[in-house]
Amino acid sequence: MVISDSKRYVYVAIPKTGSQAISHWLCRNYAGRHMFNYHEAHVPDEYSDYTVWTVVRNPYERCFSWWWMVCREPDLKEGNEMWGWSFGKFMHHNIERKYDTRWRDDADKPNFSMTQKRFVDVSKADHFIHYERLKKELEELPFIKTLVWPIPRRNLSTKPKVSFHEYFADDPVAEVIVWEYCSEDFEAFGYERKILTSL
């Protein structure tokens, strides 16, 4: 979470939506400061009259990126019990926790498994911006008078440079799993379901 008192905004960082890059960009260019836990969703009442906003991402691409980071990134293999899990196993593990706002028992972190819709509901965000239209929609935020662009990337990934639908083209069950986890995200943020078919 990033807060600016002078510009009167709260940015709620949803995992796997470019949140690290956006947080650093806000702190450097828009008088932001990191507050509370990085992915905290509960905005304290004292900031309720600020512009509370977040960034959401196409559910297919977010789930693909999230699974790859946890289960495929070589740098995260050591000591990671989920490394090597299939997409289905990883997503079903998270489906069970998608409405759970409790913090993880094993770390000082919130439950990353919450859906994007759940993050928005818990934070009471009044603005959401689509990752796919980031530049255009950032310009519409009330505290941005002049947009500083681009936003430098923070994380480099080994994830293939293909879309979810290309990567899982021969596995239509993967799409069904994303829908089971993210159906509310599709509806809330205007994303279209694209059902996979077997080759």
Can you tell me about this structure?
The protein is of the alpha/beta class. It has one domain. Helices cover 34% and strands 10% of the residues. It contains 7 helices and 5 strands; from the N terminus they run ββαββαααβααα. It has helices spanning 19-29, 59-71, 87-95, 116-123, 134-138, 164-167, 172-189, and strands at residues 2-4, 9-12, 33-34, 51-56, 127-130. The protein has a 5-stranded mixed sheet with strand order 3-1-2-4-5. A hairpin with a 4-residue loop joins β1 (2-4) and β2 (9-12). α3 packs parallel to α7. The protein is globular, with a radius of gyration of 17 Å. The model has no long low-confidence stretch (mean pLDDT 93).
Notable traits:
globular; 7 helices; five-stranded mixed β-sheet; single chain
Brief rundown of the structure:
With 199 residues, the protein is α/β, with parallel strands linked by helices. Helices cover 34% and strands 10% of the residues. A five-stranded mixed beta sheet has the order 3-1-2-4-5.
Mean pLDDT: 93
Structural classification: alpha/beta
Low-confidence stretches: none
For this entry, what is the oligomeric state of its chains? single chain
Number of domains: 1
Gross geometry: globular
Radius of gyration: 17 Å
How many helical elements? 7
Q: Layout of SSEs?
A:
Layout lengths: L1 E3 L4 E4 L6 H11 L3 E2 L16 E6 L2 H13 L15 H9 L20 H8 L3 E4 L3 H5 L25 H4 L4 H18 L10
Parallel strand pairs: 2-4, 4-5
Antiparallel strand pairs: 1-2, 1-3
Helix pairs in contact: 3-7
